[in-house]
Design a protein that fits this description.
Number of helices: 12
Number of domains: 1
Number of strands: 15
CATH class: Alpha Beta
CATH topology: Alkaline Phosphatase, subunit A
Helix content: 25-40%
Shape: globular
Radius of gyration: 21 Å
CATH superfamily: Alkaline Phosphatase, subunit A
Length: about 425
């Protein structure tokens, strides 16, 4: 029987790929605390992100809906569609809610604060903007002396725990950490902890700048890629300690859901960081729920996160949500991941041992046997009957198209009401 919890914390980590964690088979000691946490929790081995970037995954993660259901994400000026029902909006007047993060793409500007009782995105304030050149110089100097270009997880922990301590009754808290996001700037002691040589801070900055500005990153050689992996892994080891600090401070009547927005590539398919490709280094993510222990092979994804949180809080799951609670894992053959860029959409359909990709941008289909070829190096689409996989993707796309049409009709109906006499 599932317990009803007073609080649920949804912890998300930016750019964390599943296969760089010990509990998902990684050999380096990057996640000792999360490995222990996973042993006493429910770990999903086949969790996939809803998209390959922050802007394509979080609309889905916080509203249990797919990216293509409602217009969003084609450029940085678009706000979060009001048609999406964020968990914070659904829980208004029922459960206290708060969000803490420092990713500007998830800021109040884009509408992610909707419904939250407390929302901290730690953006630069008007007063710091008015500081002009001196303010910019200060930020550059902070970066040069080791301060990362985002709010450290330790401060996020302090603020989140202080808020949770102040709440009477039930609450939902979303916490997002940026530590593994580029530029990879781990404290040097965390390179020691994963057993690699320390790297000069200015070299870390140089590698980060090079990675950020090099397009397809052709000018980064293989030795530098190895250094980037070392730095990335040390960042994961660092955020593991930050999460340990958070979890050890949570009361027993608080449940935790752990996942990531997407992964990170290191030239497995010719590119670095996270771009508009749907290979596993970018879309295979961790998903761990603290309710009970065990491993589950069910294909799950971002759309299942907030239904699970509602189940843990003993709250109804709205019909508008397309995901399901992971406390009673759904029976599925696969999960969908999307990249919507203009008219050219890419959709991946990933199961326990297969991946089908319908790539409208590049005009091709791909198919991988993940059991025999987990690194997706051998596209066998020409020798496999793709009919059922193609049908599944086309049916998925049609469902999202209907939701878009319904959304547009509701907007028109509202406008008609506005002008009716």
């Amino acid at each position: 029987m599932v317990r009803s919890y007073r609080g649920v914390v949804l912890v998300t980590v930016d750019s964390l790929r599943a296969d760089h964690m010990g509990c998902y088979g990684y050999e380096r000691d990057t996640t000792p605390f999360l490995d222990d946490f996973a042993r006493s929790s429910l770990l999903f081995e086949n969790a996939t992100s809803a998209g390959p970037r922050t802007s394509s995954s979080f609309p889905c993660l916080l509203s249990s809906s797919y990216l293509s259901s409602y217009p969003y994400g084609r450029n940085r000026e678009e706000r979060l569609s009001k048609e999406r029902l964020l968990i914070s909006e659904y829980l208004e007047d029922k459960v206290k809610t708060a969000g803490f993060h420092s990713n500007p793409l998830l800021s109040k500007y884009y509408g992610y604060d909707r419904g939250f009782d407390r929302f901290e995105d730690y953006l630069i304030t008007d007063s710091t903007k008015k500081a002009g050149k001196l303010g910019k110089l200060k930020r550059v100097m902070e970066l040069l002396f080791g301060k990362p270009p985002f709010t450290p997880g330790e401060q996020i922990n302090r603020d989140a725990l202080e808020w949770m301590d102040s709440v009477d009754g039930k609450f939902f808290t979303w916490i997002h950490y940026m530590e593994p996001h580029m530029p990879y700037l781990p404290p040097s002691s965390y390179l020691d902890k994963i057993g690699v040589d320390r790297i000069n801070h200015f070299k870390k900055l140089w590698l980060g700048k090079k990675l950020d500005n090099s397009g397809q990153r052709k000018d980064i050689d293989e030795k530098e890629v190895e250094l980037l992996v070392d730095l990335y892994d040390a960042c994961i080891r660092y955020v593991d300690d930050i999460i340990k600090e958070l979890v050890k401070s949570l009361p027993e009547d608080v449940a935790l859901i752990f996942t990531a927005d997407h992964g990170e590539a290191f030239r497995e398919h010719g590119f670095l960081a996270h771009q508009d490709y749907l290979y596993d280094e970018v879309i295979h993510i961790p998903m761990i729920v603290s309710e009970r222990n065990g491993k589950d092979e069910t294909p799950v994804g971002h759309v299942d996160a907030v239904p699970t949180a509602l189940d843990l809080l003993d709250e109804e799951i709205p019909e508008k949500y397309v995901g399901e609670s992971l406390l009673d894992p759904p029976k599925r053959e696969g999960m969908f991941t999307e990249w919507v860029g203009g008219e050219k959409q890419q959709t991946a359909y990933r199961g326990r041992d297969f991946k089908y990709i319908l790539d409208g941008k590049r005009g091709r289909e791909e198919f991988y046997d993940l059991g025999k070829d987990p690194e997706e190096q051998d596209d066998i689409s020409s020798s496999v009957d793709l009919v059922k996989y193609r049908k599944a993707v086309l049916e998925h796309k049609e469902k999202q198209k209907r939701r878009r049409s319904e959304s547009e009709k509701r907007k028109i109906d509202e406008k008609i009401k506005d002008i009716s006499i």
